[in-house]
Amino acid sequence: MFIEIEANSSVPIYLQLAQQLIEGIARGDLKPGDSLPSVRAFAADLGMNMHTVNKAYHYLEEKEFIQIVAKSGVIIQPNGIPKASEKEKQQLAAQIRPLIAEGLVLKLSEEEMVAMLRELVQDIKEGKL
Amino acid sequence: MFIEIEANSSVPIYLQLAQQLIEGIARGDLKPGDSLPSVRAFAADLGMNMHTVNKAYHYLEEKEFIQIVAKSGVIIQPNGIPKASEKEKQQLAAQIRPLIAEGLVLKLSEEEMVAMLRELVQDIKEGKL
DNA sequence: GACTTGCTCTATCATATATAGAACAAATGT
DNA sequence: ACATTTGTTCTATATATGATAGAGCAAGTC
Asked: Which of A64, A129, B40, B92 is deepest in the core (most CB within 10 A)?
């Protein structure tokens, strides 16, 4: 797993970390049952604070993408991650919606945005930045 | 323009306001040259602070969706909003990317996400919540 | 000339982000 | 058995952001 953190981003670094782990799962680089580094080791590796890694882990745990086993370690959801519930789909749509609206204001056609989405899926699966 | 602000959202209310104005533009409800309420009047109408509306306006001005004419008023970009530049497209893609990745983790297929996008475009154009 | 306009300034309060260090108790590795 | 590692919890500090509040300014509008 290669993690790239932009210090000068408006996206908090705990979120950047969580998002890149999510991409790792999407890509299949991180599989069910795989263990993640300890908060201390990961923090040292990434040059950030232990509590920041911890926050990223809890963010992912709340989404049920990982399991945090106290005093033991952190693993990718061992039974596999279930398909999106209706609630999760709606939450995703609600988050994407303002971006689509902005695209429309910028005169992007529906087809252009569909193409953009398909390219993003490819990029993510290929681990392409 | 009907504006709905959720007080208990994690999205700042100045951003909610800006996003709903963007939807108004996308929908064609707000056309080039249309004037927006004064910061004071809008704030009173929405039950929020003048400075919060002002922040939303400056957010939109930075995107060049509106023009703020000091000591006069605020209008939708009178010459029309130009088509997205490459930079704007990349910025949009960068913001959508983590959401697509999350969709993939939740086992949504590319086609399901395309369908979701098409529905969002419809909803926005119809002003449907 | 009165009113409205966006802008600026100071101020306060709450929350979020990030770092730091210490201590705890249980699981793990040898 | 013992030392190490683990996530958790606590206090603490610093910075940034979000939101509100009120006052005053200078220029545009009616």
From this structure: B92
Judged by phi (left if over 0) then psi (alpha if -120 to 50, else beta), residue B20 lies in alpha
A24 by Cβ neighbours in 10 Å (0-12 / 13-18 / 19+) ranks as: buried
Per-residue pLDDT of chain B (129 residues; tens, 9 = 90+): 889 999 999 999 999 999 999 999 999 999 999 999 999 999 999 999 999 999 999 999 999 999 999 899 999 999 999 999 999 999 999 999 999 999 999 999 999 999 999 999 999 999 999
CB of A115 less than 8 A from some CB of B: no
Instruction: State how far the Cα of B56 lies from the Cα of B108, in Å rounded to an integer.
Output: 34
Q: Which residues of B fall within a CB distance of 8 Å from A119? A: 93
Strand partners, B76: B66
**DSSP helix/strand/coil, B10:** coil
Any idea which fold B13-76 has?
A: Arc Repressor Mutant, subunit A (1.10.10)
Question: For chain B, what are the domain ranges?
Answer: 13-76, 86-126
Distance from CA of A57 to the nearest CA of B (A): 15
